[in-house]
Specification:
heterodimer; A: mainly alpha; two-stranded antiparallel sheet; 14 helices; about 5% strand; disordered C terminus; B: about 300 residues; mainly alpha; two-stranded antiparallel ribbon
Amino acid sequence: MSHESTLARGAAARQGTPARVWLGIVLFGAVLAVLPFLLGMAGQSWIRTLNFALIYVMLALGLNIVVGFAGLLDLGYIAFYAVGAYVWALLASPHFGLHLPFWAILPAGVFLAAVAGALLGAPTLKLRGDYLAIVTLGFGEIVRIFMNNLDAPVNITNGPQGINRIDTFKVGEFMFGRSQEILGFRITGPEKYYYLLLFCVLVIVLMCVRLQNSRIGRAWEAVREDEIAAKAMGINTRNIKLLAFSMGASFGGVAGAMFSSMQGFVSPESFSLTESITVLCMVVLGGMGHIPGVILGALLLAIFPEVLRAVVVPMQQTIFGDVLLDPEGIRMLMFGFALVLVMIFRPAGLWPSRVRRRELAGAGKEQA
Amino acid sequence: MDILLQQLINGITVGSVYALVALGYTMVYGIIGLINFAHGDVVMVGAMIATTLVVSLVGGGVASMPAWLAIIVALLLAIPACMALGWIAERYAYRPLRRAPRLAALITAIGVSIIIQNLAMMIWGRNYLSFPHIIQPRIFEIGGARISLLQIIIILAATAIMAGLLLVVHRTRLGTAMRATAQNREVAGLMGVNINTVISAAFLIGSALAAVAGVMVTTYYGVAQYTMGFMLGLKAFTAAVLGGIGNLGGAMLGGLLLGIIESLGAGYIGDLTNGVFGSNYQDVFSFIVLILVLVFRPSGLLGERVGDRA
């Protein structure tokens, strides 16, 4: 029944999109297009923050496929991000002397991340979700242990020092990492990356939206709601879950490759459990399974630490005359409380999807 | 041969600590079907409290205590602190979600784990705390291998505690109530079992065991840090799965086996691979064990229930 009403609404929207909506889209697009220049006035560092926020949006959308659509808790998601980042770093840096073009590396990174996702999911998907959570948790750590130790006997990852001087993203002779003059207009590296990342995010959003309303998306939802019923309806639950896993992982791979090329440096430190938890927080806080909610969550939590740093440190200095609690600890503590409180009081997130809100509210009523 | 024996002794020592922690996972899982991600962090809190206390009790010139007394005092304070922590987590974070979707409870458990870790970081800082070498390193020789007094104490204490737990679970009213709740919560409730009390009791007992394990770990390795609970928890969970989650005997067996596998693996991996992989891959073993168990025998060594209960 819910599907019928969604369909009806969708049809109504297609028949006549109101001028108001179009105006909104155009305005929104205009804001997105000039955003880096507006922020650039406040300082280039804000553009970098914005770029990281966009990378987090990609990660959160990828994890949302696994956690939000298919209902599988993945606690080692950052490992796929690491795979993407290291593939780019190894194939486009002086470390091995390789400098392959992006159209070769990007698919390789995405493919490897997807394979890693499928491999990780395969042994556990027949079992209950809890096992998957713990296996992914372990997997995330294992990937980090390997990155840290694979500098001997053959130096593959360069160990804890990481890999530096990684090539920037370039299309032909157009380098995304460098400042240059275009039509008498000076445009910096971070600004160029902003557009590249924005493009990636838009493609991923489009894919997510199309996936959600597709046969596969419906199947994911069915598996999430009741796996046994889904199986009875003829869904190959194992394959569909595996697909969710590798699809989510591949988005993580894209984000990793972008991160690597933008930073020019990767080390195992960037891929700790804390990062996995941060991305999970974005998805949970924003609203599991609801694309605009997840984007909101990612943007909020990516920009939040910067704000926290700007507020907490001076505040402590004025009150105590010293920095007693570092912002990083406070951030993680607040993330922890956010996870618990959101789950107890607003399980569908800040900006929930209609379906999800209804079903999670239903669960709450049953309890009361 | 003596290397083998030596690694076995080390493995059994570490394994008995894993077993204590695994019991906490398995009790909670058996009764409410939740993987309590925060359990490893409860162990960490126990270790941190004990280390701080022992440092101040033994090191301080004014009130220096004999080593054994200091450790007992540390235990007596760490156990109630951890029990309180476990109880609070259950009462305020897990209980409201008992009927919520499984995913919600799991996410909450991760949240609790992060909260405990970061609170600990704020209290004790990011650095490793070192546990003073207060126990005389008295060492006995058995067939070419060395076993220290501390190892003997850890193994004996863990065995005694586990025997006590089995007695409680199989011989007392509370134990009967716990087993009934694990079998079917609703029906046990109808039979007059106070479900909330039973679940709280499981958390309290599990956290007390975690505190003891924490004290053992920090005494044995000589260090404690706020992130130590993560790997320890992961390994103990692996031990619980290896033995068959929800099964007390299984958790004990799984813990011992995992400890032995890990120390044998770390001891021999260098030789077996001609030095390509070293003991820095030690932490990978428990993960491989976990994957293998999940693929080939998901119910574990002693478990009967296969995990597809929706």
